[in-house]
Structures are given as structure tokens and as C-alpha cells.
Amino acid sequence: MKAILPSLLLLTAPVNATDWPVYRGSDHNGISKETGWKTTWPDAGPKIAWKVEVGIGFSSFSSAGKHVFTAGFAKDEDTVFCLDAESGKVVWKHSFPSELGDKYYEGGTSATPTVSDGKVYHLSRWGDAMCLDATTGKPVWQKNAAKDNNMTIPDWGFAGSPLVNGDLVYLSIGERGMALSKASGEVKWKSGDKPAGYSTPLPGADGLIYFSSGKTYSAVDAATGTIRWEYPWKTQYGVNAAEPIVDGTSVFIASGYNKGCTLLDTSGGEPQKVWESRVMRSQFNSCVLVDGHLYGPDGNDGDKGALKCVEMKTGTVKWEHKGFGVGGVMVADGKLIALSHRGELMIAPVSPAKFEPSAKAEVLSGRCWTTPVLSNGRIFCRNAKGSVVCVDAR
Q1: What percent of the chain has pLDDT over 90?
Q2: Strands of 114-116's sheet in order across
Q3: φ and ψ of 254, to 5 deg
């Protein structure tokens, strides 16, 4: 019996468990390399390993080893949490004064903490930028990068998560971003003070970083902030929130408020429109691109938003799953992991033919705009009021 037990334990563990250290994952595309996790569960629903409250907000999750990181608002403070992934217990937390900012919605935190080389980087809605020790939570440096540089705060605050690339940390502050020294927080370059968009900086090939503003999407030189190209994209209220999807020289952009989407060809340097339509209107969360097809939420909060599959090359809708709302989607091992705006967690094969979940269950109540995260055999989900559930998928 003793000889059999180790083998049984191996069967319950992920074949290839991976960390998720940044928003949208290590490859910045919403796709995890994790395999061997459980994609079905009983009719009664999945095993909930633990639940915890982290405060109001929409921050997603990052993970490293045995720890998972997120942020929330309570009692006039924002708090960055480091949780034990196995138990949900607080390993450390770092709090600082903040405001709720509940204009037309619950408010609270927006950006997701970023983990890199033993440090945690975070940006608040009001421009508080910080580097924390990942083991203890103690600040290495902390400053208000918006106020210190006289930058305009967008209507709903800053929402992009920090991007660490080389010796710099990039922030969506200013119309085409800002770069700080990751070691000291010193400003290395900054852009104009017109309102930033709400997307997370995206690294690209040839030393590019992609940013959004309230009226454009742009590609800038990572070292200097010099504009390589800029494309006008004016969305109501300046809500350019979804990250662009980059595939070689093709760039897909989508936003909500019935603006729609476009595919750009940047092979000639300046972007040229290939097609534009309203088949995908990404109000908050970005699509995931798999084998030439985009999977993501189409629509605005409050309407009859759907989860859709759209062929990127042509803009052709392959299928739609109505009633999904503006939830979030990621992909791992050929499976969609989708959390609807009402807290229904669904697992389905990635396929342009149809959407056919192998498992689904309501794991949360209330508003759920935050993208779920699979890491090391666990799926982390949260709602607006800050209830976090950990689904054991090992």
C-alpha cells in the first residue's frame, strides 16, 4: 500500500504546473502552458479549496510558487495581499491610503500586482506606484508617479498593471506611458499628460511597447518612449481598456460602448486598416487568440453581452454564447476557462466549431468582471466586493 500511495498522489497533481506572475500571464496573451489539470467536475460543482475576503475591486491574480497576489479596497485603504495558495491565509499585506472611486460602479482596485525577481510591483488607481519585497511585503520604493509628474488621472483612475521588462517597469500613465527604473522608481522617460487608456502595457517584438490612451493605441520604443506609430481609436468616455492582440505584423484592437474592433496591418510601418466592425466590443477584458481565432466577451455591462469566437483574419463570427456579459477568459491546455459576469465558471475545449462546456458551476455571486487565473492546479476567481474563491483543479 505504501508503494502505491506516491503513484496515486502523482495522478492528482498537474503534469505541468506553472506560475502566473503578471496580468495575462508570462507570455502576455492570456494563455497558460499548464497541463494535466482537472477539466470536469461532479454535478454538485468543483471542490472549493478556500474562500477569503480581500476588499472591493477588480484586480486579478498573479502567482509565484506557493503564493498568490491580488489587491482590494477597505476602510479608506488599498491593500496588496500575498496569500498562501494552499490555504488562502494572508502571508503579508501592504496597505496605503486610498479612495473608493465608486463612480457608476463599486470602485476599488483595478490593476493586478506584478511579480518579478523576488519583487512585487503595483499601481493604484490614483497613481501610487510601488515595489514591494515579495517575501515580506516591505516597500523597496513607493511614490505617486502621477502627482510627482503632474499627470492627468483618467475618469476611472489608472487600471493598467505594471509591466517589468529588463531594467524598467512600464506604467500606463500619460497618453503613451511612462518608464521607471525597477530598482529605484526613478523616471526614465514619460509621455504627454493627456489621459491614459485603461489597458496594461504590452511588450512586442523589435523593442516595442503598446499603450492605449483615451483616443489612440500606440507602439513606442521601449528604451526611449519614442513613438513608432499611433492609430486613432476614439471610444466613448475614453475607455480603451482591452490590450491589443498582436500576431506578427497584425494588430487587433477592440473596445466597448458599441465602438467595435479593427484589424491593422503594420508591415509597412504605419498601421493600415484591414477591416473594422462591431463583432467584438471588449469593454474591459481582452480576447485570447488561438489558431487564428479570437475568444472573448463582446458587449457592455448591463446589456446582453456574449462570449464569442471570431476569426481574426476576416472578422467572421464563428459562434456566440449569450448571457456571458463582460466576464473574463483565459486558455490552458486547449481549454477555455471563462468566468461570466454573474460568477458562472465554465471549462470548454477551444474550438471555432462550437462552445460546449465540459464543466460549469456558479462559484461566486454578484458582479464578476475579473479574469479567472489558473496556476499550479488552482483556479482563482473573485467578485467586485472582494470575495475570492480557489477552485481545486488538481
Answers
A1: 94
A2: 114-116, 119-123, 128-133, 139-144
A3: -145, 145
Please say whether the beta carbons of 69 and 62 come within 8 A.
yes
Is the confidence at residue 338, as pLDDT, over 60?
yes
Whether the pLDDT of residue 236 is over 50: the answer is yes
CA distance 197 to 238: 7
Residues 21-72 pLDDT 10s: 999 999 999 999 999 999 999 989 999 999 999 999 999 999 999 999 999 9
Reduce the DSSP state of residue 237 to 3 states and report it. helix
Domains and CATH numbers, the chain: 20-392 (2.130.10.10)
Write the single-letter amino acid at 141. Answer: W
For the chain, give percent helix, strand, coil, nearest 5.
5, 45, 50
pLDDT digits (tens, 9 = 90+) for 122-148: 999 999 999 999 999 999 999 999 999
Rounded distance between C-alpha atoms, residue 228 and residue 337, angstroms: 35
Strand partners, 289: 294
Q: What is the rounded CA–CA span in Å between residue 156 and residue 111?
A: 12
Amino acid at residue number 363:
V
Nearest to 81 by CA among 388, 394, 391: 388
Q: Give CA–CA dist 107/281, Å, rounded.
A: 22
- Angle at CA 215, nearest 5°, toward 372 and 181? 65
Q: Which residue has the cell 473573485?
A: 382
